[in-house]
Amino acid sequence: MDVSSFFQNATIDELKKGYIEKDDSFLCLLCGEQVEKGIIYPVDGKLYEAEKFMKRHIEGSHQSVFHYLIGLDKKMTGLTEHQTKLLELFYQGKSDAEVKKELEIGSASTIRHHRFALKEKERQARNFLAIIELMKEKDNHAPSFVPIHQTATMVDDRYNITEAEQEEIAAKYFNAGVLSKFPMKQKQKLMVLREIAKRLEGQESYSEKELNQLLQTIYEDYVLIRRYLIEYGFLDRKADGSLYWLKK
After folding, report:
1. What is the pLDDT of residues 112-157, one digit of tens each?
2. 184: helix, coil or strand?
3. For the chain, what is the total number of helices (H) and then of strands (E)?
4. 10 Å Cβ neighbour count for 219?
5. Within 10 A of 158 (CB to CB), how many other CB atoms are there?
6. Coil, helix or strand for 219?
7. Domain boundaries, the chain
8. What is the pLDDT of residues 176-216, one digit of tens each?
9. With contact defined as beta carbons under 8 Å apart, do 50 and 39 qualify?
10. Closest C-alpha among 161, 225, 168 to residue 199
């Protein structure tokens, strides 16, 4: 399941929890895992109803929502590497003196300055969100953009893709699920890879042979496709290449 659209449209409260509630299940916004309501889940001698089991899943699979979000590409968070490190230490409950020592920063006043700068960033973000929400109430001409997949690498203008553009490229390059040619333009390449990644959602992981066989039904140069799926952050693999899986 492509969870990117759910992630993109989630409220702040839903993002903080890391999951949303659907009619018959709870959906993890971080990986797409679904937990069915009405079932009791036994784990390590304990019984969990669905929502508590989802919380346990997030803790066990993602450590925390904070750690997942802070690990996103900086284009997705707007945070510098230094700000990310500061936030990690503040989240751990470190005192200013401990942060100063760990980051080898000159003085405690420098830490206070960073805290103030982050607080200012929070105020700006809140104002910006309010502005955008008010604008959306009046803007009747905004196109629907394809959500950026959460494991994307090198996020830039090539991800500026509308749903209409995605459909157009899919119709242009695919015939009955077979890719006619692999485009050279970066933006079109991304759109084609997104369509191919949808074909890999059927199972958790693939051996190299299984993946090659599947990709070969889509395009003759399956090695090229496999390489770009990894490069663009759709696919991951074991170091020895024995196992591949869709990144979530």
Report:
1. 899 999 999 999 999 999 999 999 899 988 888 888 887 787 778 8
2. coil
3. 12, 10
4. 19
5. 16
6. coil
7. 4-69, 73-138, 157-246
8. 999 999 999 999 999 999 999 988 887 788 999 999 999 99
9. yes
10. 225
Which top CATH class is 157-246? mainly alpha
40: tokens are: 């009791």
| Phi (first) and psi of residue 137, to 5 degrees | -70, -25
Whether the Cβ atoms of residue 50 and residue 38 lie closer than 8 Å to each other? yes
Amino acid at site 156: D
Residue 161 tokens read as 């893709």
Residues 6+ apart with CB under 8 A from 135: none
Ramachandran angles phi, psi of 175, nearest 5°: -130, 110
Give the CA distances from residue 156 to residues 160, 161, 162, 176, in Å, rounded to whole numbers and listed in that order. 8, 11, 14, 30
Q: How many residues would you count in the chain?
A: 248
- 89-96 long-range contacts, Cβ below 8 Å, gap at least 24? 90/115, 91/66
**Cα(27)–Cα(25) distance, integer angstroms:** 6
SS in 3 state form for 21-74? ECCCEEEECCCCCEEECCCCEEECCEEECHHHHHHHHHHHHHCCHHHHHHCCCH
Q: Of all helices (H) and strands (E), which one includes residue 182?
A: none
CA pair distance 189, 227, nearest whole angstrom? 12
Six-digit token string for 120: 């200012």
Positive or negative CA dihedral for 163, 164, 166, 171? positive
Region at 141 (left for phi over 0; alpha for psi -120 to 50; beta for the rest): alpha
CA distance 126 to 118: 12
